[in-house]
Write a structure and sequence with these properties.
six-stranded mixed beta sheet; 9 strands
Length: about 300
C-alpha cells in the first residue's frame, strides 16, 4: 500500500511592506547605476576668454552608451564647449564633472612625416603599449576605416578625407569612454561618410562609450544621436528658470533672442544650450523612421530664429 506524502504548503505571500521595500531598493540601485554611468554632468557652465563669456548657463548630461549631438551657427561656442568638457579650458562659473575624454579636433594635428599607422598608434605608444602591438592594433583600426592601402604612407601625402580618418582612428584607439568629436567627418566624401557612420555606431555601442558630437550636418546629427541640442544666443532678458534647462521651450527661447547676432564668439553675448527636437527610435535607424524631415525642419527653424 503506497502512501502519498502531504503536499508542501504554498509559500507565504510576501508582506506588502516587504515588497515595497524590495522595489524601493531596486529603484535605488538602478538610480545609483545611472549616476555612476554619467560621463558628463554640467550645470550652469560658463566659459570664455577674459571678461568675454562665450558660453553661459549650459546644462548638459551625457550617459554611457549615449550620443549627444550639438548643432549651431559658426562661432557660437561649440568648440569652446568641447574644450571645457575635455579639460582644456577651465569654466569661469558653474559646475562640471566629466570623465577623461578623447578629443578629435577639427584640425587633425597629425605628424605629416609619420605614417598613417604610427599616427594612429600614438595614444597606444604614450600608454607604453609595445611598438609591435600598437602598430598591429592601429593597422586593424585603419583597415576598418578603409585605409588598409595607406598604412605605411606618410600622412602628408594623404587627402584631407583620408587624414580625417587617421585622426578618427587615433581618437578611437585612446580607449577613453567619452569621445568629443568636433565635426569628425566634415572632409569625408558622402559615400565614405555613410560607411563611417555605421562604424561609429558599432564602436559607440561597445563598452558603454558615450559621445558629444558637434556637426553642421543636420542629417548626421539626426542619424547618430540619441538627443539633439542647439547652441544659441542667450536672450537679453528671459523669464522663468533661464535658458539651457531641460524644461525650456527651445523655439520660444530662441525667438526671444531674434535680432541678436548668432554665435557667442562673434556676437555681443554668450551662447547657451537649448534642447532640440525629439528623435524617434534608436540611433542608426533610417532618417524617415527617426522623424528625419520633421527634425530637419525643426532644427532649421531653431537655427534661423
Amino acid at each position: 500500500m503506497s502512501v502519498t506524502p502531504d503536499a508542501p504548503p504554498p509559500p507565504a505571500a510576501p508582506h506588502p511592506e516587504t515588497m515595497t521595500s524590495r522595489l524601493g531598493s531596486a529603484r535605488d540601485q538602478a538610480a545609483a547605476v545611472r549616476v555612476e554611468a554619467q560621463l558628463v554632468r554640467a550645470s550652469g557652465l560658463t566659459a570664455g576668454f577674459g571678461a568675454s563669456p562665450v558660453l553661459s548657463g549650459v546644462d548638459l548630461q551625457v550617459a554611457a552608451g549615449e550620443t549627444v549631438a550639438i548643432v549651431g551657427r559658426s562661432g557660437c561656442g561649440k568648440t569652446t564647449l568641447l574644450h571645457a568638457l575635455a579639460g582644456l579650458q577651465a569654466p569661469t562659473a558653474g559646475t562640471l564633472e566629466a570623465q577623461p575624454a578623447a578629443l578629435m579636433p577639427q584640425r587633425d594635428g597629425l605628424m605629416p612625416w609619420a605614417s598613417a599607422r604610427d599616427n594612429a598608434a600614438l595614444p597606444l605608444r604614450i600608454a607604453r603599449v609595445p611598438r609591435r602591438e600598437a602598430r598591429s592594433l592601429a593597422d586593424a583600426q585603419l583597415r576598418e576605416l578603409g585605409l588598409g592601402d595607406a598604412l605605411g604612407r606618410p600622412v602628408g601625402l594623404l587627402s584631407g578625407g583620408m587624414r580625417q580618418r587617421v585622426a578618427l582612428a587615433r581618437t578611437l584607439l585612446t580607449g577613453r569612454r567619452l569621445l568629443l568629436l568636433d565635426e569628425p567627418l566634415a572632409a569625408v566624401d558622402a559615400l565614405t561618410r555613410g560607411e563611417l557612420h555605421q562604424l561609429l555606431l558599432r564602436h559607440l555601442a561597445r563598452d558603454g562609450h558615450g559621445a558629444v558630437l558637434v556637426t553642421h550636418d543636420l542629417d548626421e546629427a539626426a542619424f547618430l544621436a540619441d538627443r539633439l541640442f542647439v547652441l544659441a544666443p542667450v536672450p537679453e532678458s528671459a523669464e522663468g528658470p533661464g535658458p539651457g534647462h531641460a524644461g525650456d521651450d527651445a523655439a520660444s527661447v530662441m525667438r526671444s533672442a531674434r535680432g541678436r547676432p548668432a554665435g557667442g564668439t562673434t556676437g555681443p553675448g554668450p551662447s547657451t544650450l537649448l534642447p532640440g527636437p525629439a528623435l524617434l527610435g534608436q540611433p542608426g535607424q533610417h532618417l524617415d523612421e527617426r522623424g528625419g524631415q520633421a527634425v530637419r525642419d525643426a532644427l532649421l527653424t531653431q537655427l534661423a530664429a
